[in-house]
Design brief:
single chain; 166 residues; alpha/beta; 4 helices
């Protein structure tokens, strides 16, 4: 019998469209100040998932990889709130976070999505939603979500409940 922890959710996605749809479900639940940390190998589906997050959240433009700029800002038209999408792949560690203004971004009231978050883990706030995406086969992905903190437990519970309507 598997051990299931309330603070974790393990999902299998069978296509890029399904991975994006899962992102959309989560994106619709995000609030100002939420921090989503994504980890996974190159090509695992982090940006596909994030593009869904942006759609669900209400980003007016498609979310693409910010690899070359490191930070993309998406401002929602309805309320002018911001989603920050950061790619930490080229950062060598927490010491490099000043170069992208991470403290200012985290202190703001926007939603923050970090790809390659493990590279700057020691610079992250204690509370966040940690999502590991693993490629299993050509189109199959495993998403392991872990809530760290009360807000993220609530977010994970809301997300879990939304999946029953999928």
């Amino acid at each position: 019998m598997p051990i299931i922890r309330e603070s974790e959710l393990d999902i299998i996605s069978y296509s890029a469209d399904q991975t994006r749809a899962l992102g959309m479900r989560l994106g619709a639940l995000l609030r100002k100040g939420d921090i989503i940390c994504l980890i996974g190998d190159m090509g695992a589906g982090k940006t596909v998932f994030t593009s869904g997050l942006g759609l669900g959240w209400g980003a007016p433009t498609p979310i693409t990889s910010p690899t070359f700029n490191l930070v993309h800002q998406h401002r929602r038209t309805a309320d002018r709130s911001v989603l920050y999408h950061l790619d930490c792949y080229r950062l060598r560690g927490a010491q490099d976070t000043d170069s992208i203004g991470l403290d200012d971004i985290l202190d703001g009231d926007g939603v923050v999505v970090l790809e390659w978050a493990e590279r700057i883990e020691s610079a992250l706030p204690k509370e966040h939603l940690w999502i590991e995406i693993r490629g299993r086969e050509e189109n199959r992905r495993n998403l392991l979500m872990e809530a760290v903190g009360a807000r993220y437990q609530t977010l994970l519970d809301e997300f879990r409940a939304s999946l029953t309507r999928m």
